[in-house]
Automatic annotation (TrEMBL), chains A, B:
Native source organism of the sequence: Propionivibrio dicarboxylicus
Protein name as annotated: Aspartate/methionine/tyrosine aminotransferase
Keywords: Aminotransferase, Pyridoxal phosphate, Transferase
Cofactor dependence: pyridoxal 5'-phosphate
Family: Belongs to the class-I pyridoxal-phosphate-dependent aminotransferase family.
InterPro entries: Aminotransferase_I/II_large, AspAT/PAT-like, PyrdxlP-dep_Trfase, PyrdxlP-dep_Trfase_major, PyrdxlP-dep_Trfase_small
């Protein structure tokens, strides 16, 4: 196998969220037990942005249409995004994170947060570097590092039984830095586990990063969707060397604007500068007309965000209630975001077969835990940003199938 | 300088089209002669998509809005793009290029043709590889190769005095393949020179690629905008090994849809597969709602494309007429696309200073030839997809400033 074949073999997307439709023929090798269970199909691999679930921010389409009518100035922005818009977003993000942001020097608009992640990592890491990656964490983090020919140094997140902590293993983290990791990439809230890093954990990350001169890329995609009682600490507002931190956000999740492909990275200008240069050869810019939609961001109608959070919290609680009825199914209540990451009891079939059975027999699509950590062979991820009733029905079917395939 | 600093130093975007606004302070070091010349400002660095020039395809915004109303299925497509849409586009491109395309296996939608180029090159080339690149050619080609740590092997395009040929130096090309270039990347029509490769040249490229087992990536972004008398040969419809060719197109130029960031790559399924895997970690997918706009592609109102081509041809002819009045200004009439690449007479100031003078003194933005070839230190590129009258006025001011700064 050539170097490039090897590299792409590690980039497998067959089990990535939304790609299940491309799996061909393989269901023949899974032995299914019993009848199909009827019910409204639910695709928990991503959020549902239909009007029956969580529609995009009010006014977003109108902003887009106005952008189109502005013509060339909106279609052809600077590679890093329209200047006036960057200033506007920078002040909102400064207020949100509690730390200044310069719209001209420290912020770039990208095609989705995925674009921001790629640009941030590829502007920081080269082949041979070591990068500390949390297990479990967003599936693309590991793939980005590996694609660049760099080495993943795993850091455990013990998200069960960690009290008020997310459960980051800080000894692992310091060991990773000691053995030469120059970059730390993590999501907060954690995707898939839904835990929020405590203030103590974030302060310790900042301290270790300063001590070892490590660049930290923090994906805060879900940091607006906090459930009651959750305290959130922005890494960039700590004592961390501001020249070594990039924060990533975007309106694709809580705001349901994924169809516009918008993301934002902000932080160290030396890295934002590189990201713009790289964006120039990767995609030129975040889609020009779509950029206009960011005017709705942090500018939603009064009460809209509170209601959206309350709706998600209600779904979360009902799903946790359903899952509590299955013996041995272990799940930590997420403090933020819309992911549940239950650990299943021992089953008679491998995880990937069970995931297939859920889809074929119960009309329920979930993402196998192995996308997030090679060790998560007993977990599934659900994005519960769904129609409330349909989600509860689907969770009930998951419990039924667990019972059906449960090892004696 | 560290490896990553070096890599990004070569990715400079200061003179890239549209980035001129980020140049700071440096105009003080340019000694300007004479008064400013009044006139409507024209930005020739990219096409003008305003209604006073070349507006997007009729019905494009309506298709977008319908896409938004389709909700989740349009927002969350497979990474390679919505399946039904890929089938539809595949048949159109098969008809256009005269060679079958499979929508399910051989086509991917990308964020702009820039996205397609990046994915194609990064799916083909690894550090240490050699890649044949035409001089001059699209500025990102060289940068993509260098960013991946690969080596550019230049191939000359003698676009002046080449009769019915584009002027590709086929000896250079074979020499590049002989010395180990495994990939050949080029644009047809050529950006910036506007020349179309003859059938003989394309057949010879195919033959050499087969002989040496070279993968060819051909950027055909402008292949719909052909002026009268131009014959176009699609590389993929020749005897070239179909497993070794990827064709790139998109609706950003002739169709003025750049604000939607849409591109398409089609060809060898082994490479399209890799491109999808890479897209999954770079930007996930072409913007979901924007994908819907591709329904207008190759489906424009009757007569619309003919008229658009005629309008561009009329501007081309008027600009050539203006430039013919400047002694020693040399320009080949483009056979396709909307670029002029005139070679200027010897000036009293360096090219980059003259480009600055054009902007400051004449309100005219052009792209210096050095973006397209290190040898093009005496040329400027103009995208003449502009308001007709404004473009002619701006060309007249260019001629005036050439006379002003011309070496005795």
């Amino acid at each position: 196998m050539s170097l490039i074949e090897e590299r792409f073999a590690r980039l497998a997307t067959d089990n990535a969220p939304g790609q299940e439709v491309r799996q061909t023929g393989a269901s023949g090798d899974v032995t299914l037990i019993g009848e199909n269970i009827p019910g409204t199909p639910v695709d928990f691999s991503h959020g549902d942005v239909n009007t029956s679930a969580f529609a995009p921010t009010p006014g977003s389409l109108e902003e887009f249409v106005q952008g189109v009518h502005r013509g060339g100035q909106q279609a052809y922005t600077e590679y890093r995004g329209a200047a006036a818009l960057r200033d506007e977003i920078a002040s909102k993000l400064a207020r949100f994170t509690g730390c200044p942001v310069s719209g001209s020097a420290e912020l770039i608009l990208t095609p989705g947060t995925q674009g921001a992640l790629f640009l941030a990592v590829a502007s920081t890491v080269v082949a041979g570097d070591k990068v500390a990656i949390v297990r479990p964490d967003y599936f693309a983090n590991r793939k980005l590092v590996e694609f660049l020919g760099a080495e993943v140094v795993p850091v455990r997140l013990d998200y069960f039984d960690s009290g008020s902590q997310a459960g980051l293993n800080l000894d692992d983290l310091e060991a990773a830095f000691k053995q030469g990791a120059t970059t730390f990439l993590f999501s907060n809230p954690n995707n898939p586990a839904g835990v929020v890093y405590s203030e103590a954990e974030i302060l310790q990350i900042a301290k270790l990063a300063n001590t070892y001169g490590v660049t930290v890329i923090v994906d805060q995609l879900y940091s607006r969707l906090l459930y009651s009682g959750t305290h959130y600490t922005h890494l960039r507002a700590t004592e961390i060397d501001s020249d070594n931190v990039v924060t990533i956000m975007g309106p694709s999740k809580t705001e349901s604007l994924s169809g516009y492909r918008l993301g934002v990275a902000f932080g160290a200008s030396r890295l934002i500068d590189r990201m713009e240069k790289l964006q120039a050869i990767v995609s030129l810019r975040a889609p020009g007309y779509c950029q206009a939609v960011l005017r709705t961001w942090f500018n939603e109608p009064s009460g809209w965000m509170d209601e959206r959070i309350a709706q998600h919290q209600a779904i979360r609680d009902d799903l946790l209630n359903v899952f509590s009825k299955s013996a041995d199914l272990q799940v930590r209540s997420p403090q933020a975001g819309s992911y549940l990451f239950p650990r299943l009891p021992k089953l008679t079939i491998p995880l990937h077969h069970f995931v297939r059975a859920l889809r074929v027999q119960a009309g329920v699509t979930v993402t196998p835990g192995t996308e997030f950590s090679p060790n998560s062979i007993d977990s599934i991820r659900l994005n519960f940003s769904q129609n409330h009733e349909a989600a509860v029905g689907a969770a009930t079917r998951i419990v039924q199938l667990i019972e059906r395939y449960r090892a004696a």
